[in-house]
Amino acid sequence: MGAGDERHKRRYFPSHFPKGLLRHSAIGDTLGPMTTGELTLAASARRAILKPSVNWLLAFLPITLVLERAHAAAPLVFFSAALAIIPAAKLIVHSTEHIATRTGDAVGGLLNATFGNAPELIIAIVALNAGLMDLVRASIIGAILANLLLALGVSMFLGGLRYHDQRYNADASRVYSSMMLLAVITLIIPGALEGSFSQAQFTPHILSLNTALAVLLLLAYGLYLLFMLKTHGELFKSAGGSKAEHHAGAAWGLPRAIGSLVGASVLAAWMSEILVGAAEGTGKALGMSQAFIGLVLVAVVGGAAESLSAIAAGRKNKMDLSIGIALGSSIQIALFVAPVLVLLSWLIAPQPLTLAFHRAELGALLLTVLIGAVVVGDGRANWYKGVQLIVVYVAIALLSYFVPQVST
Length: 408
Known about the structure:
two-stranded antiparallel sheet; mainly alpha; A middle domain of Talin 1; 16 helices
């Protein structure tokens, strides 16, 4: 080989280039080293495929459909559908964060609560149609408890581990707390009426009262939206004292973010419908009551979207968004979802739904709202406040498991 050939070889085939990164033509001729851009793209694709990801759980989507068609055991269908909801919830998280960067935390939290509550609404409608009234009532209470205690508690705990002190808008949190107290007082009324009449008198009176309260709650929710979005929006602005983390990479356009949010919510609602269909069989197979399934399992899975959104926001030091999601979702369930279910029950359920919750459920709800108001009222969050909320949630969950008759 001559000197010219040797120089040609060194030019196109550098000896320091890693083995295995030379491109080859279709007939096997070596064409030269891959470019830097091609190497980066190949490495990124390899990392995306091999790196553990929540998106791997999308495999449970076809698995759930196969199990349902094959009439598999109810617990298998239930937990497979629950796992399939998780990646949809993650997409809702990302979509909400991108929308919030353009609309503000208050509107972003409202959108997340609305789309995140879609699975819970679907679950309750399916249960209504099946006549599972105890499950519906337990899921309403359970969804509020999961947001106020579990989601917000984990958000504060994980955020507090990364940041010594997290600040947020105390005015907004006080508005949220007062709305929740209003909702709890309204929900107590049907149960309090039960002791004032005989059983024969109670049914017609309670049905009329529930319909009137449903309309009243929907009116209150509409005025709450007007207050938050139109007349007093300044009360819900994010606190400016904290430095929040920002998105890695380019921000999504608004059409992409909204489209992803809608699509993920539809997927979550679809899997939720399958999940609730297997809920009763799962409870019987595992020895769980409808109260525990509705109060804990269905509530946690159905609310996975907004819960993960609130937790992700807390970890990124966006406590205004986190509280807006957790408390905003609870307000929407109490003032919108519950009355809508009461009105829909006249059309699709074997019998009208009443909001006459058991005293133990109402007691747990009232204590939850009170401790939530105390914890979030000062505009500062830390990890120990999160621990307090989580402990209360676990205690209530244990109560519903070991004393299932409290909701019968």
